[in-house]
Give the backbone structure.
Amino acid sequence: MKIQEEQVFTTADAIVKELVEAGVEVAFGIVSIHNMPIYDAILREGSIKLICSRGESGAVNMADGYARSTGKLGVVITSTGTGAGNAAGSLVEAWAAGVPLLHLTGEVASPYLGTGRGYIHECKDQLSMMSGASKNAVRLRKPEQTAAVVRKAIQEAMTAPAGPVTLEIPIDFQSAIIEDVSLEGVQLVTSQITSTVIPEEIVEKIVEARRPVIWAGGGVITANASNELTKLAELLGAAVITSQSGKGSIPEDHEQCIGHFAAYESTKEFLRKADLLISVGVRFRGNETSNWKVPVPEEHIAIDADWQAINRNYKASFGLVGDAKDMLAALVQNLEEKSVSAVPTYIEEVRSLRNEVRAQLRETLGPYEQFVDSMREILPRDTILVRDVTVQANVWGSRLYEIYEPRTSIHASGGGIGQGLPTAIGAQVGCPDKTVVLMAGDGGFMVNVGEMVTAAEENLPIIIVLFDDAGYGVLRNIQEAEYGRQVAVDLLSPEFVKLAEAMHFDAVRIGSGDEFVCELKKAKDRRKPSMIVVDMEAVGPMAKPFGGPPGAAEAFKPKKL
């Protein structure tokens, strides 16, 4: 029988103490000989729930989905070397999406760092690898500094522009006995900017505008500024375009919401006639702007919490750097004092554009129009829709399926396939009472298919809608359009229903829109892990093949550089 040792305070305990201090309730990861002291400290402390993933990549995605759906800090714990490397791709996604995430990873024992002697799990330069995948990567170099280093890492992860921060802790440091030191007077902040004074010149430019457009990005949601954004839009009678990350910043059934249609020709023409753009927390990504060919007005007021965002992709005539919620609230107050009112004829144009772009997209869907309509009709208004990179998600899941609330739309900002399943798991962990639906394709789904067991183990009632066309559908269409031939895009699909049932999911394969409606209702009501496999060959093709994101094909055309 093992003798109970007298309890001492270690580096691992200091790490857990800081996590609890920061309000962390859940951590995701895989236990290893290079993080076991941290896991044991979490067990002994008792307040943090541990979710055990089947891979480090999936663990990071889970922490990512948890953070995006809740607005809280995501925490993931991985091992050294290969384990940390497995996490890198998913950290890139969290970085691309600006997700506040703390990645705790082990390292080899401190005397062997950088020696190349073959210490188990050794990596030539793990810190550089993590630095390239994260907002920042730091190494604990002295156990006595643990509390301060962890506190600083959490603060950096949450400070705009938010992102994943990796903290390496050598394995011998994790068990080092240190004094329990409390840090006082250090507060976690999400923004370094506090000023909300709006220059009068900016207010006047807005007052003078007769055809204003607001472009809302993920920064609106990060700042919890959706109400303020909607108030500003209604006050001005402005059209509201959203980025992919900005979906839900204004209810998408609002008559002034154009939505995620910036690259549509009708929207481009509308923007050419606009006399003012107010962008709020927008990255202006290449795939959402036809590689920055979407026109914007000369008068452009850019609001962002990141100094470096101003003029990065589009020229701004005025830059307001600060918290979006505070900035928008100050703008609304200033404009209300000036009795600004919307132009009725312009609002009618906005409504017309909203209807036009949706009608254009609907014409391309063929039998899948029934799918999008039934999903929105059957699923609760606050359903969290997670979309992996697949044709159906890109075409209509990200545009026609309406999002009504912030943090209920999650998509891969970095464009990597296969991250949807673990991201949906993290979202369901963070929001256990909500319905979480994943849209995925068969190709990407297989990347992290093992995480189905994690969902089942936690009894998470996620609904997976898997579109099975036995291949990489997006790439098929692009290759056919560009080259008239296809290569490396056909895949042998497993028997997904049997696979899902082996993973403790309720599963069914359907071949029509009517069957889909029936099975989606059942899945919503049963509140158990469920999968609906859509046989795309049986359902039939879309009316118009999807040719990839706007501007994507330009890179494939022969040209002189």
Notes: The chain has 22 helices and 18 strands. The CA atoms of residues 479 and 487 lie 8 Å apart.
